Amino acid sequence: MAYEMSKTFPFETLDVTTPLGTAQETVMAEQPVVATILRAGLPMHIGFLNYFDRADNSFISAYRKHLKNDEFKIEIEYLSSPKIDDRILILNDPMLASGSSMVLGYQAMLNKGTPKHVHVACIIASKEGLEYVKRNMPENSTIWVGAVDDELTAQSYIVPGLGDAGDLAFGSKE
Predict the structure, then answer these.
(1) Which helix (H) or strand (E) covers residue 128, if one does?
(2) Per CATH, which fold does 30-169 belong to?
(3) How, if at all, do strands 151-152 and 117-126 pair?
(4) Hey, which bits of the chain come out as E strands?
(5) Where are the domains of the chain?
(6) Distance between CA 87 and CA 101 in Å, rounded?
(7) How many CB atoms lie within 10 A of CB 24?
(8) What is the pTM (predicted TM-score) of this model?
(9) Which is nearest to 122 in space by CA: 164, 94, 101, 97?
């Protein structure tokens, strides 16, 4: 996904000098900011850094605060990010269930500036979450999804989905 995404970025040709000579090489004209919704997004973040190894990093702590009767709201608790004014922003989270974490994460990032383009990256999305993100992200956004699952439960879990991506990557939260 990161490789395909990189094809949409601006590139420039530079003279690169090595001990054996000089060659013209095509390189990315600018580095993106890779923003990850913790903790489930960390493995995906590392994968993106394999392609964007000079990117700046942002981390957004978002979690479900459970209320009564299977209801919850998404809380953004922490944000660490450089300025993003006029930069390419990549927001990644492996699971896009309701879409609320992604939209609220983006809104939190706006405290650091306004990006020139936003790439939303997820591995699995629900139809409802995908539609929610499309409606609530700016026009200068591109959404990258590996697969779309048909169902979202009343508790906003993707069916069949994968389960809790954070627990699968790092073990239970208990």
Answers:
(1) helix 127-136
(2) Rossmann fold (3.40.50)
(3) unpaired
(4) 11-18, 21-28, 33-38, 56-66, 72-80, 88-92, 95-96, 117-126, 141-149, 151-152, 158-159
(5) 30-169
(6) 21
(7) 8
(8) 0.87
(9) 94
